[in-house]
Request: fold
Amino acid sequence: MSRTTKIAAVASAAVAATATATVALTASPALAVNTGTFTATLNGTMVIDAGVPASCTSSVLKGTVLSGGVNASYTSASAGGCGVTVTPGALPWSGTFSGTTVKINNFSMSAIGCTYGGTLTGTASATNFPFTATFTNQVVPKTSGFLCPSSAKITAKYDYKQP
Reply:
């Protein structure tokens, strides 16, 4: 290879490396939602199945998206129309929003002497408010109770919005 060809090859490689670095540096950061308060209202029915399914017809989650738009704090939760008393517990719950993935950590609900809790992972219909998050067959372990099944499955769809 001639000296001119070698210089051209090195220059071409340097241009390609610079273009690659420019693309990497200008890529968008991880998707995040708007900071501030939010409300998530049950859309349809929430089913909590611990051997015998309980279908709840109302539920509201409220919280705040923290600075950065990725982490959240769920400060209140309710469940009603379940046929049995279902009580959310261990609030606040933490959570995250990342692209179209919504997580609720430290989730906890009790009914008929059994408490179940863990992490729910759902899929959001959009990457920012308003969106619908769908949680399908999320298995959470029993955290307390006597003669309770070892886990429960949670299925619910929530409409998230900000004021």
Q: What stands out?
A: The CA atoms of residues 105 and 119 lie 4 Å apart.
